[in-house]
Every structure is written in structure tokens, then in C-alpha cells.
Design brief:
Layout: H1 7-21, E1 25-30, E2 46-50, E3 57-61, E4 65-72, E5 75-82, E6 86-91, E7 96-100, H2 131-142, E8 156-160
Parallel strand pairs: 7-8
Antiparallel strand pairs: 1-2, 1-6, 3-4, 4-5, 6-7
């Protein structure tokens, strides 16, 4: 009998805490062949998504996948994020939340090649460097983007292995 990871339960708990506090839940994930996101929105093999009820429709946070609908550039897309690819969930307003070590397939000694759906393949990273993916997601979240408001750096994240 295999046990289910605690990760999907922690993701749902942090999401619910953000919503209850009036914060905007953000999710950072690695983009690979199992991830369905709009082309051109992943950067360096990662994506940060707003999971608020105002930004998503039909949000489902199951034990294996997180799925929802969202608009990108005014166009509706269906997104699917494997729970194994989630590297952080946090409140946009204060950066509090939780970071996770990326999960690798059993027997896989290195990280998979990262790619966005638009075909931009990224170089695979060594497994020991994957712990830095969550830190990179935090740094990216702190950078002002294409006219969007500056998001605070999530500095209160707890990394879970």
C-alpha cells in the first residue's frame, strides 16, 4: 500500500489560508512535458501563476494535478500543473507560504529537460541544483514584469523536501 504525499494537502492548506486572509495565492511550477500552460508564458522552464478566484475558473486541486482555466492576453486557456512540478505556493502580498523541492521520477538521477509548450527547450539542470529552482522562482516573483505591479519577494517560504 503506497501512501499519498502530503504535498497536495499542504498546497490546498496554503491556498485556503491565503484566501481566508484576503491574500492572492501565487503558485510557482516547473514547466515540462506534463505541464499544460499557454505558449510563451514560461520563463527559464518555470511559471508563476495567480490562483485567486478572480483569476481562475473551475480550479481543482487534486492529489496529482492542479487544473483551472485562466485568461492570458484576453484569451482563455485550460491549464494543468502536476503537483510534482510545484515548487512554491505563497501570498503575493507578503511572500509567506511554502517552497518544495522538485520531485523526480523514481530512478531518474537528473532533472528532466524543461520546456514550455511553445517549444523553447531549456537545458536540464543537475539534481543538486534543483533546490535553487524555488529560490529562482522567488527572485522572479520579485522582479517587475511587463507593466504588472511589483510583487514582493516571498522571503518567508519554508522549503519542504
Amino acid at each position: 500500500m503506497s501512501t499519498i504525499s502530503t504535498k497536495p494537502y499542504l498546497l490546498r492548506a496554503i491556498w485556503e489560508w491565503c484566501v481566508d486572509q484576503g491574500f492572492t495565492p501565487y503558485l510557482a511550477a516547473i514547466v515540462d512535458g506534463q505541464t499544460r500552460v499557454p505558449p510563451g508564458y514560461a520563463r527559464d522552464g518555470q511559471i508563476v501563476l495567480n490562483l485567486s478566484s478572480e483569476a481562475t475558473g473551475h480550479l481543482q486541486m487534486a492529489n496529482d494535478y492542479i487544473s483551472f482555466q485562466a485568461r492570458f492576453g484576453g484569451v482563455a486557456h485550460s491549464l494543468v500543473i502536476p503537483v510534482a512540478n510545484v515548487i512554491a505556493i505563497y501570498a503575493r502580498e507578503n511572500g509567506q507560504g511554502m517552497a518544495f523541492e522538485p520531485e523526480l521520477e523514481e530512478g531518474d538521477e537528473s532533472a528532466p529537460a524543461l520546456a514550455s509548450l511553445d517549444g523553447d527547450a531549456q537545458e536540464p539542470e543537475a539534481a543538486e541544483d534543483m533546490g535553487e529552482a524555488a529560490a529562482k522562482a522567488r527572485e522572479e516573483a520579485a522582479k517587475p514584469g511587463d507593466g504588472s505591479p511589483r510583487r514582493p519577494r516571498p522571503s518567508h517560504l519554508t522549503v519542504v523536501k
